[in-house]
Amino acid sequence: MSGHPADPHGAVHWIEHLPILIVAAPLLAAPICVVLRRARAAWTLAMAVTWGAFATAIHILSRVSAEGSFSYEVGNWAPPLGIELRFGFFNALVLVIVTGISAVVLSSAPGSLREIPRERQYLFYATFLLCMTGLMGITSAGDAFNVFVFLEISALSGYALIAQGGTPRALTSAFRYLVMGTVGGTFFLIGVGMLYMVTGTLNMADMAERLAAADASRTALIALAAIVVGLGIKTALVPLHSWLPDAYTFAPAMVTAFIAATATKVAYYALATFVFRIFGREMAFERLGLAHVLLPLSLIAMFVASAVAIFAKDVKRMLAFSSLAQVGYMVLGLALCNKSGLTGGIVHLFNHAVTKSALFLALAGIALRLGSTRLEDLRGIGKRMPLTSFAFVLGGLSLIGVPLTVGFVSKWYLVLGAFESGNTAIAVLILLSSLLAVVYIWRVVEVAYFSEPPEGAEPVKEAPWSVLVPTWVLIGAVIYFGISTQATAAVAERAAELLMMGQL
Amino acid sequence: MIEAGLYNYWVVIVLMMTGLYVVMAKGNLLKKVIGLNMFQVSVIMFYISMGKVEGGTAPVLSEDYTVYTNPIPHVLMLTAIVVGVATTAVALALIVRIHEIYGTIEEDDILEQEHPEYLAEEAA
Hints:
The complex is a heterodimer of chains A (504) and B (124). By secondary structure, chain A is mainly alpha-helical.
């Protein structure tokens, strides 16, 4: 019936088992956090686990670059009957981003987590670790049903994290996210079920093979549609985005920095792997015509969301709408369906994660000192909190796509991809939509640097070091990877190349 | 037996669409959760139906039988049930807190409290 476990007396190299720990360690640490009950102890444990996961992710990425994609057999049961974790260029890169951002953002937690009373913070860290477990699981799973389970683990803990925002509206936005997210997850489950009907397997590599061999039946096409809708909700692709702006606006500042950089990115990864790896380019784009749906939707997201961001009265909300626009760029890269476009999408996944978490973290510092992120309250903030404000400006430049920031690199590849697909209009639209980003970032700059602080305003200090340092670490990454583009672009290019051939 | 085979799937689709409709159309948060549950249950039924093998028996090895029902969808659905229970639990916890703060679980009343200025403009 099933495979036999390998020789238990064989020498166990602990380094061989690091890949499973990236999923298992946060899962095991979460209940320990609950037992510890003290905020400082729980935070220390969570820090050890997330930084450890970051180191592991870098180890996985270097192993993938050295020897190509590899698989970890859970419990020593060989796939396809056993469950495997599969690592390639794409998901190793996503793992590095997610763990890196989690680690940096979590470092700011003791200073920035003012929404939750200290005696209940241990529960927050436990939930944070569970959310990370889910995200790690989606990214490394080689089994379609595991993706669903981890998707729901990350989503459920995500709802709980967002509901901690401290305002009544945090609760209602978490509830709306729950309804949308569950519908999305269930659509994904329907899709996986139909795939199982057609192929009789849940292993993703196996599924791809059998799906290519079988005639693309209507069941498979409906499976693709259900999966695209389900993951589209999780990625917050316009018009399935309605949960995102409220959830980002009312979540605790630190949670927004974490979720904005990770949850939608991991969902995008899942979308790209299902479309390219399992269904394959031919079926998704030639038979179902996915590009006809995704291309207009991503263009709408780029323009409409950016336009709404211009009129937002709250900077946190502005950045939330800007996130929708950035999801548009990522999906555009996927929909262009050529190597440069896909490279742009993958690089943008990395770049936007770093940029947006830096921006939200800077905003967390501002919220901590001012107690508000409304635009009118930010008057003169450039003089009152110079370091935080300057970090925000640099992040904003990357959002626009100014050269020497990471934002430029991804737009460059996207424009290349648009030219490669022979569609010059799209290239022009990418550049035009960047101008909208100039407008909304400029509104913040104008208020922050060119207007006087409100009269009788209490003097405010710079954001605490525990927030300022992580913010500047992320801004440092924005600049570093913007100048030395080879590190990310080369991995993304290789990942895109493999993905175009249906491999990880 | 073809009609009998498809009968299950018709039930699945009716349940699924009813659930989705309730989620979208009902303003009561509790009813939304019930709709969500119906939607999830329809998927469970979908998996169980597809695992059924015509003439198959329960998947317990025995010399008397050669045809067994596929057990994998059942196992998967055990997990999906757990996910459904967890989702319902989180949703109910949120509803309790929303009720404590807003004093209502009707979406219209909540929106009214969240956007008083917007509704005032609309009325004017």
